[in-house]
Amino acid sequence: MDVERIKFERTGGFAGMRIATDLKFADLSDEQASRISELLDDLDFGELPEELLEESMPDQFTYVITVETDDWEHTVTTGDASAPEKMQELLHLLDRLARTKRKH
Amino acid sequence: MHKYSHINCFVPPHILKNIATKGTESQRSLAIDTIKVSARMSGQRQALAEFAAATFRVAVGGKDRIVYDARNGSSLPGTAVRREGEAAVSDVAVNEAYDGSGITYDLFNDMYQRNSIDGNGMRLDSTVHYRQGYDNAFWDGEQMVYGDGDEDLPASERLFNRFTAALDVIAHELTHGVTQFEAKLMYSQQPGALNESMSDVFGSLVKQYKLQQTAAEADWIIGQGLLTENVNGVGIRSMKAPGTAYDDPVLGKDPQPAHMKDYVNTISDNGGVHINSGIPNYAFYVTAVELGGYAWEKAGRIWYITLKDKLTTNSNFQDCANLTYSVAGELFGAGSIEQQAVQKGWLEAGLTVEGGGTTTPSDNGGCLEALLRLLGVAPVKRS
Ligand SMILES: [Zn+2]
User: Fold this and answer.
1) Cα(B199)–Cα(B307) distance, rounded to whole angstroms?
2) What ipTM is given for this predicted complex?
3) B197, B97: one domain
4) Are residues B23 and B102 in the same domain?
5) Count of CB atoms within 10 A of residue B368's CB?
6) Cα nearest neighbour of B270 on chain A
7) For residues B324 and B333, what is the distance between their CA atoms, to the nearest angstrom?
8) Do residues B349 and B260 make contact, with C-beta atoms less than 8 angstroms apart?
9) Do B139 and A55 touch (CB under 8 A)?
10) Residue B39 shares a structural domain with residue B137
11) B233: three-class secondary structure by DSSP
């Protein structure tokens, strides 16, 4: 699969501040793009349930990740404690990109 | 016989207990006399029994803490690095989590006779160094979890420090545990915003308790010290002036309302639980300042009893206004200055207390105030 675009949104948390980023894959560094592709492959992202979310826990972040490839688009909503261990690196990479690009 | 021992109004025994156990020699003796007299007069054998227990009991199954280190991973709880009674370690976050959960335990235990999160000595577990670049703290249903802020970004881009840096954040998370065992407020919409507000209220009270600040002296800021010098802001929220904690080109402006007319309808953040909490936060602040003195003594007690005994899963702001008002009446007397202060607090946040009706001051009204003034621990009356 060829990833074209990833949208990431983080809401909630102790501070209740929303951050988001809309990444065109072509604009990422080769290193970032290949690592993110690997992680999405490992997760089989397109087959994940849309809601990877247990009940809302106080002050946890909620993450909404949308991946667009050349032939499908899929959105997954998850949270800190409910995200599978395999997803943690992807969450950190996307979260870091969103924090670096904070704009309001 | 002590000259004030004829005071025969009902004073909540827990307050007298605190004076009796912590006050000066003369305060102690007066408080003890009063407890005996008022308990005897009202046939409160229970009060006498509880008093004896509180005065002489050595905490059994009391404060018990463990701080864990997630070592930047996401599995909880991580590796235990400091247990109850162990000496401070070199990691400042570990010590902050240990000390912060300790003083939070102390406020609940000393002031409200609550033994830990569950009221039954539950161990206080905290994990620090959760993940990387984690600018947050949370309660996961069983324990407190803290991130290190934006430590993974270059110093010039960092917005958040480690989340254990603010004592009120630690107390905020621990209070989520208390709420889980008591009112069980649903974490969504108004019940969720009340859940958040209770955590901010006791978060701020723990900080005030540690600093021994009166309501007038306290800053009422939540998360003071969390924002780096790159941010234009004093903290995450202000209970005194919701909506003014930060105003920054990158973080934006603090979105909290202080009044119902500015209630924010949103689906984000579980229905804006961290936004609309500004409204009940402000009601508490106004109540506490109106009463003067230490906010944990009266306003805090009213809110604590309401959280413990009155609020339920679906309670909304109006319910909380009505219930704190009725609790103030039960604790301090119908029409008492305490009850009026609660009414005023909610009114300034845009909520009119219902169901209580207008009441005339009874013999109980102002009774506690009078006694505290005699003891020399009451706030100076505001002019
Ligand atoms: Zn919270």
Assistant:
1) 11
2) 0.94
3) no
4) yes
5) 24
6) A12
7) 13
8) yes
9) no
10) yes
11) strand
CA of A69 to the centre of ligand 1 (A): 37
Q: Evaluate whether A87 touches A63 at the Cβ level (below 8 Å).
A: no
Give chain A positions within 8 Å (CB) of B139: 57-59
Q: Is the separation of the CB atoms in B185 and B194 below 8 Å?
A: yes
- Confidence (pTM): 0.82
| Rounded Cα distance, B38 and B44, in Å | 8
pLDDT in tens, B182-233: 999 999 999 999 999 999 999 999 999 999 999 999 999 999 999 999 999 9
Angle between helices B167-181 and B189-211 (to 10 degrees): 130
Q: Could you tell me the CATH number of the domain that includes residue B71?
A: 3.10.170.10
Residues 6+ apart with CB under 8 A from A4: A24, A25, A26, A68, A69, A70
Q: Is-contact A88 B74, C-beta < 8 A?
A: yes
- Tell whether B98 and B214 lie within a shared domain: no
B240 and B333 within one domain: yes
pLDDT per position as a tens digit, B69-108: 999 999 999 999 999 999 999 999 999 999 999 999 999 9
Same domain, B161 and B259: no
Tokens in use for B245? Answer: 């904690």
HSE at residue B68, side-chain half, CA atoms within 13 A, is 18
B236 with B380, same domain: the answer is yes
CA B189 – CA B276 distance, rounded (Å): 9
CB atoms within 5 A of ion ligand 1 belong to A 58-59; B 196, 199
Domain range for B206: 185-383
Tally the domains of chain B.
2
Chain mean position to CA B63: 18
Q: A104 and B252 in contact by Cβ < 8 A?
A: yes
Determine whether B173 is an active site residue: yes
**Contact status, residue B172 vs residue B200, Cβ threshold 8 Å:** yes
> Measured between alpha carbons, how far is B40 from B51 in angstroms, rounded to an integer?
13
> Using alpha carbons only, what angle is made at residue B335 by residues B332 and B336, rounded to the nearest 5 degrees?
40
Q: Kindly state whether residues B90 and B238 are assigned to the same domain.
A: no
Distances (CA, A) of B315 to A37, B280, B318: 46, 13, 8
